[in-house]
UniProtKB/TrEMBL annotation:
PANTHER family: SULFUR CARRIER PROTEIN CYSO, SULFUR CARRIER PROTEIN SLR0821-RELATED. It holds the Pfam family ThiS. The lineage of its organism: Bacteria, Bacillati, Actinomycetota, Actinomycetes, Kitasatosporales. It comes from the Bacteria. This is MoaD/ThiS family protein.
Length: 100
């Protein structure tokens, strides 16, 4: 079973600069474990052991453009030909200023 995983710029140091990699697995958790066998360290950037091996709070994962948090999270079932996109959450902006 081949699954394409799109890698954000910040995690490409784990994939030797590759924007997309192939992986296998019946669930998202299995896929991340499989990726970690070839791209050591990537799983720990995505999964938080302190939170019961759930997705890290500031990592968004999409299965075929659908947010996995609204599916089964890390237990979401995968199929051959699926596309998984990993996106870091982005926050920021300037603090609001008040003038008197």
């Amino acid at each position: 079973m081949a699954i394409e995983v799109r890698i954000p710029t910040i995690l490409r140091t784990y994939t030797d600069g590759a924007k997309a990699v192939q992986g296998t697995g019946d669930t998202l958790s299995d896929l991340f474990a499989d990726l970690d066998t070839r791209h050591a360290g990537i799983r720990e950037r995505l999964v938080d052991p302190a939170a019961g091996n759930q997705l890290r709070r500031f990592v968004n994962v999409y299965l075929n453009d659908e947010d996995v948090r609204f599916l089964d999270g890390i237990s979401t079932t995968l199929s051959d030909g699926d596309s998984v996109t990993i996106l870091p959450a982005v926050a920021g902006g300037a603090p609001e200023t008040h003038t008197a």
